[in-house]
C-alpha cells in the first residue's frame, strides 16, 4: 500500500492508486479473493474500515477491486469517493436472491436497471421519482462477454432493498410479475451516484437462493457462479477498454 497521504475519508487511497475500471463486491473477503485470483500484480491501497481495495491488471487493463460493504449507504459513499479518486467505470459484482423460480442456482443476472426500494436514493433525490439504470455500454459489454463465454445469463430488472430479512415469497412473486428478476442491496445507489457524476456503472449478480427457499445455494455451486460472474465482468472491462483505445 502506498505511503502517500489519503485524500478521502473512507476509501483512504492516495491519488493515482485507483484504476479507471473498478469491480465492486460488497464482501471484503471477496474483494481480496478477486484481487489474488484474477489480477496480476495486485497491491492493496486501502483497508480502512475493512473496505479492502486493490489495484492490478487484467489482460493488460488496469483494474481495481473495492469492497463496498453491505447496503446502499456504504455503497454510495464508496462509489462517490472512488469517482473522486479517478474511477470512470464501476461494476458491482455480488449476489442476489431470485424473485422467480426460473432463475437457477448460481445463474448470472445482468441488471438493466434497479427498482430503488432503498432510503439512500430517496434522500439523494429528495423523494423525486427516478429510475436508476445501468450504463448501456456496460450492459452491452457484459452480455457480449457472457455470450462469448457460454455463460447462462438473464438481463433485466433487479430491486435494491435495505431490509434483507423483510422479503417474503409473496413480495418476491408480486415484483416478479412486474419484471423484477431478484433482490440485492447496492445497485440503485451505485447507478444513481455514477449518473450524478457522468461515469459508467453496471451490476452483475450471482443467484444465491430463491426468495421462496430459505436454503442458500451450496457453497461449491455458488463459488462456481461467482467465478463465472467475475470473469464475465473482467472481460466486459477489457471490451470497454478496447473501445476507448
Automatic annotation (TrEMBL):
Signal peptide: none annotated. One of its GO terms (cellular component) is cytosol. It comes from the Bacteria. Gene3D superfamilies: Nucleoside phosphorylase domain. Residues 21-235 form the Nucleoside phosphorylase domain. Its EC number is 2.4.2.3. It catalyses: uridine + phosphate = alpha-D-ribose 1-phosphate + uracil. GO terms for biological process: nucleoside metabolic process. GO terms for molecular function: uridine phosphorylase activity. It is an enzyme of class 2 (transferase). PANTHER family: FI09636P-RELATED (PTHR43691:SF11), URIDINE PHOSPHORYLASE (PTHR43691). This is Uridine phosphorylase. The lineage of its organism: Bacteria, Thermotogati, Deinococcota, Deinococci, Deinococcales.
